[in-house]
Design goal:
Elements (H helix, E strand, L loop, with lengths): L5 H5 L8 E5 L5 H11 L7 E5 L20 E7 L10 H16 L5 E3 L3 E4 L2 E13 L2 E10 L18 H5 L5 H17 L4 H11 L6 E6 L2 E10 L5 E5 L2 E5 L3 E4 L3
Parallel strand pairs: 1-2
Antiparallel strand pairs: 2-3, 3-7, 4-5, 5-6, 6-7, 8-9, 8-12, 9-10, 10-11
Bound molecules: biotin (BTN).
The site of biotin has 21 residues, from helix 2, strand 3, strand 6 and strand 7.
Length: about 260
């Protein structure tokens, strides 16, 4: 049921998938996208790398990302029109785009700040935006890992509970249909990235972090407080014993009390 092939994906006509690579197996699509940027001066916005299996996928903070056959593992090369300083917006715009696509498939995902997609407290999709400069131009590699036609029990050792499309829908899905829905929805969100307030409004309507007591690991320090709001650029505002603190990046854990 994977249906993933280059011709079909290029046939979607998505501006995010003008040039497509589909691999049976690779180390990491993120690494392959980076290699394309490094070695191919013509690599353009809208290059998509997909692999049916990743041997060495990684997530945020370089954590291992289990990527067996049955999942959707992909990296998109973006050359954003926005200044590099605003590239962080892509993280949250992507979370909104993928969340809407999955909700369209009937999966009630919510967003945990900044961009994890959860069903209840179980993670179904991880998003990783890595940015940089090459030949004087900024780029973002947007990695998306979606647990699709997999059993949650087969994704051991991630250190948290996971969900999959199979566990939520009760059946397997055609990965090319899912990919098409994700690309369409991402295109819509990225096209309106200048109107970031509108994206954050949708982010908040899909959020499952605000109002919760959280612990944030940030550059070796631990912060605890209640997640109360987002700043206009998407930072998490925590109400702590030391007052309000804006968190631009970090790893959020929910506290049960
Ligand atoms: C996270 O939640 O920590 C982000 C996970 C991102 C995983 C995807 S799978 C496709 C792409 N290739 C990788 O090695 N990582 C990303």
């Amino acid at each position: 049921m994977d249906g993933l092939n280059k011709r079909k994906i290029e046939g979607f006509g998505s501006s995010l998938a003008r040039r497509v690579e589909v691999h049976e197996e690779i180390g990491s699509t993120q690494e392959r996208a980076r290699e394309l940027i490094r070695t191919d001066p013509n690599v353009s916005h809208g290059t998509l790398v997909v692999s049916k299996v990743q041997r060495g996928g990684w997530g945020r903070l370089k954590r291992r990302w289990d990527s067996p056959k049955g999942g959707l593992w992909m990296s998109l090369i973006l050359r954003p029109r926005i200044p590099a300083s605003l590239a962080a917006r892509i993280t949250q715009a992507a979370a909104v785009g993928v969340a809407k696509a999955l909700r369209g498939l009937g999966v009630g995902v919510r967003i945990k700040w900044p961009n994890d997609l959860l069903v209840g407290d179980r993670k179904i999709c991880g998003i990783l935006a890595e940015s940089g400069f090459e030949r004087g131009e900024s780029f973002v590699i947007l990695g998306i890992g979606l647990n699709a036609n997999l059993d949650p029990g087969g994704l051991g050792g991630m250190g948290y509970e996971v969900a999959t499309l199979r566990s939520e829908l009760g059946h397997d899905v055609d990965l090319s249909n899912v990919l098409e829905a994700i690309l369409r929805s991402l295109e819509t969100e990225l096209d309106r990235i200048d109107d970031f307030a509108a994206i954050l409004q949708d982010w908040k309507s899909l959020d499952c972090t605000l109002g919760r007591q959280v612990r944030v690991h940030r550059s070796g320090k631990i912060l605890e407080g209640k997640a109360v709001d987002l700043s206009p650029e998407g930072a998490l505002i925590l109400c702590t014993n030391d007052g309000l603190i804006e968190v631009f990046e970090g790893d959020v854990a929910y506290l049960r009390f």
